[in-house]
Amino acid sequence: MGPLIVVPVEHASLVLKVKGLIIYADPANPDNFRGMGSPDMILVTDIHGDHFDLKTIDAVKNAHTILIVPQVVADKLPPQDKEHVVVMKNGDQTGESGITINAIPMYNLPESPTAMHTKGRGNGYVLTIGGKRIYLSGDTQGIPEMRSLKNIDVAFVCMNLPYTMDIKEAADAVLAFKPRIVYPYHYRGNNGLSDIKAFKALVEAADPNIDVRLRNWYPAK
Asked: Are 128 and 105 in contact (CB under 8 A)?
């Protein structure tokens, strides 16, 4: 399908562009998407405001934009969006615009009904685009479902305390499923930004075949 262009935006937000197709993931803050092009598809992983921002969705979508969301997000969408929504639960698969989308679990460990991210509520996603597999972790820890992923070409992996996991747990999980390329993203926590350079060092020291690419998800305003 040609080159895949990755555009880091901010925190959990990113844009993927391939062969005229524009995909937004967890768009938040309309100002961040000026000049990005109107999305053919918007993926939302969870209900929290840094992932699901209805104001931004309303600002960036067009009449044909498909929303890929978990049920908890679908429940909060206005009626006019319902006919453009594909609701996915963990384990579901769908096809849209020539790509395959699999919904993957994302949750905190140990599992608890009071956890910030409970199992089954939100979705990570694996997109198969032109034979390549792209993984978006959403908010999760190094769960068994992540560790058992196969043949991931590009992975976007979160790492921020206390919401997800620290860099050591993230590195250990990445070393288990061995993506070809990994981008640390979603790395702002209560104590500032996670040390993604240290994450890169941990991964590449253990497996130099994994290409850890550092990008700035927190540009100065």
From this structure: no
